C-alpha cells in the first residue's frame, strides 16, 4: 500500500527554525496535492500549507511569511520550512497527500495521512 512518513519535529526556542519532511512510499502512480496540517492540544486540526501538483502554494494567514512548503517530486517528498517559530505554533504536524495508486489499467485515488510529528516551541 501507500504510506507517508514524517520527520523533523522537536523542541525549539521561540524565534528558531525547524524543517519537516514527509516522504511517500508504496505503489504510487502519481501524487496530486501535498499539504501540512497541524493540531494543537484542545483545538481542531487546521490546514497550514498546501502545494498542488501544478506548483502553486497556499498558506494559513497565521504562518504566511514564516513557513515555506516545497516539494521534491522525484523523491515523492514534501517539506515545511518553519522560521520565526512562536509558542502558538506548538502542535502535532501532519502530512496529507492525494495519491493515485495502481497502473494504467487500474487506478484509484487515495487521501493518505502521515502519523504526525510533534513540534514544541518553548523557552
State the gist of this model.
This protein is mainly beta and 123 residues long.
> pLDDT average, as an integer?
96
Annotation, overall tally of beta strands: 11
Percent range of helical residues = under 10%
Content-based structural category: mainly beta
Distance between the termini: 40 Å
Uncertain runs are: none
- Quote the beta fraction: over 45%
Query: If you compute it from the alpha carbons, what radius of gyration comes out, rounded to the nearest whole angstrom?
Result: 15 Å
Order of helices and strands: EEEEEEEEEEE
Largest sheet: 7 strands, mixed
Number of helices: 0
What is the 3D shape? elongated
What this model shows, in words?
With 123 residues, the chain is mostly beta strands. Helix content is 0%, strand content 61%. It has no helices and eleven strands. The mean pLDDT is 96.
Write the layout of secondary structure elements.
Blueprint: E1 2-7, E2 10-12, E3 18-26, E4 28-39, E5 46-51, E6 57-59, E7 67-72, E8 77-82, E9 91-102, E10 107-113, E11 117-121
Parallel strand pairs: 2-11
Antiparallel strand pairs: 1-3, 3-8, 4-5, 4-9, 5-6, 7-8, 9-10, 9-11
Features:
0% helix; 123 residues; 11 strands; seven-stranded mixed β-sheet; four-stranded antiparallel β-sheet; mainly beta
Amino acid at each position: 500500500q501507500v504510506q507517508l512518513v514524517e520527520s523533523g519535529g522537536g523542541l525549539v526556542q521561540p524565534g528558531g527554525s525547524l524543517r519537516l519532511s514527509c516522504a511517500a512510499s508504496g505503489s504510487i502512480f502519481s501524487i496530486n496535492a501535498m499539504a501540512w496540517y497541524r493540531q494543537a492540544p484542545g483545538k481542531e486540526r487546521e490546514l497550514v500549507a498546501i502545494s498542488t501538483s501544478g506548483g502553486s502554494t497556499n498558506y494559513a494567514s497565521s504562518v504566511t511569511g514564516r513557513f515555506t512548503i516545497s516539494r521534491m517530486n522525484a523523491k515523492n517528498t514534501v517539506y515545511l520550512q518553519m522560521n520565526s517559530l512562536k509558542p502558538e505554533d506548538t502542535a502535532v504536524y501532519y502530512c496529507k497527500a492525494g495519491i493515485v495508486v495502481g497502473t494504467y489499467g487500474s487506478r484509484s485515488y487515495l487521501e493518505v495521512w502521515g502519523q504526525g510529528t510533534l513540534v514544541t516551541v518553548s523557552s
